[in-house]
UniProtKB/TrEMBL annotation:
Alphabetized PANTHER family for the sequence: TRANSCRIPTIONAL REGULATOR REDD, TRANSCRIPTIONAL REGULATOR REDD-RELATED
InterPro entries attached to this UniProt entry: AfsR-DnrI-RedD_regulator, BTAD, OmpR/PhoB-type_DNA-bd, Sig_transdc_resp-reg_C-effctor, TPR-like_helical_dom_sf, WH-like_DNA-bd_sf
Protein name: DNA-binding SARP family transcriptional activator
Stated family: Belongs to the AfsR/DnrI/RedD regulatory family.
Amino acid sequence: MYARILGTLTLTDGLRTVTPRAPKQRQLLSLLLLHAGQVVTVDECVDELWADSPPLSAHSTLQTYVMQIRKTLRSAAADTGAPAEMYLETRDRGYLLAVGPGQLDLHQFEKLVEQASLARIVGDHTRESELLHRALGLWSGRALADVTCGPLLRTRLSGLRETWLGALEQRIDADLRIGRHHRLIGELRVLTRQYPTYENLHAQLMIALSRSGRTADALEVFARLRRTFSTELGLEPSARMRDLHADLLNSVPVTESVYLPGPDSTPVPLRPAG
């Protein structure tokens, strides 16, 4: 059994797709998959499925959805003749979806990002880049793009989006460190327009442009960032960004280790355009 949530919701037994079709079942399965290996309480399930307006039959209806998901998992395991490594347990006041190793794309993504971070710490940026390319390649669009989301899923997905962006930023940083600046420019131009107040992406673009002999373009990136900060936030870019700008003006060679966060840095919160 294998489940995908980093894109559209997909549940497959290796031979066929067995993803539930009913919207509420899909929503509940998504909640359980995002918390795989953890107990999700009955109250949390009800809150996710019906928010502030649960029907009087909410608990019995929830039990029906659980029974249907459990039946799907058991049926898929029986059809393949393999041990049921993905199964839904009833726990005290809640439910736990047990997922075996390699059965959920989110777990694969998290493992690859963790391995990449270890490679970063020891300075193996080629391996770091390779691992992060693999991790990000597991995504096929917005997570749970075809699932109706209630309050719990929306909160969890917001955090997951931040994790994706952090991995993307780290991958770009690794690619810069191994000399792939030319091929990053187009990607970073798109990202800096999508996240117009995110300084790290702008710093990466400025460094990539500078390394490519396009200092004037790098200075224009800073000018656009400064205008955005002034107009939208009433602020100036950080001292780090102003130092990068000054070094470019003075033809001082720039390096990632000076202007980009180190391996233990806390990611900067992201705010998309609009």
